[in-house]
């Protein structure tokens, strides 16, 4: 099975089936945390400030994407330059994404319980 440039699931490839659960966990953590958190905050913002809140959320998402790509790309590059195989470096980045998503989910649940 071919998953993308250089990412196959055959023997000796850089892709490992063990990475798929990490990617799914990271995506699920993000999905479970982001929407409830934004909804909680939006409920506390008045209608007169809704446009400003929308702009803030959009800008924050874009900056977070930029910082995330830079940080995770740096982690991957440092691992590869440190001698790790590309697949192992990718697994490290996936584990970091999953860990950050779990932390975000915990923060989201804490906000929901506090309400």
Strand and helix map with partners:
Elements lengths: L1 E3 L2 E2 L10 H26 L5 H32 L4 H29 L1
Antiparallel strand pairs: 1-2
Uncertain residue ranges:
1-5
Give the domain tally. 1
SS-derived structural category: mainly alpha
Q: Rounded to an integer, what's the Rg over CA atoms?
A: 18 Å
Q: On the 0-100 scale, what is the average pLDDT?
A: 80
How far is the first residue's CA from the last residue's CA?
Answer: 46 Å
Major sheet size, sense and barrel closure: 2 strands, antiparallel
The helical percent reads: over 70%
How is the largest sheet built, in terms of strand order? 1-2
Principal-axis shape = elongated
List the quaternary state of the chains: single chain
Task: State the total count of DSSP E strands.
Answer: 2
Number of helical regions: 3
SSE pattern: EEHHH
What fraction strand? under 5%
Descriptive key words:
115 residues, mainly alpha, two-stranded antiparallel ribbon, 2 strands, 76% helix, 4% strand, disordered N terminus
Task: Describe what you observe in this structure.
The protein is mainly alpha-helical. It has one domain. 76% of the residues lie in helices and 4% in strands. The protein is built from three helices and two strands. The protein has helices spanning 19-44, 50-81, 86-114, and strands at residues 2-4, 7-8. Helix 1 packs parallel to helix 3 (86-114). The chain is elongated. The protein starts with a strand and ends with a helix.
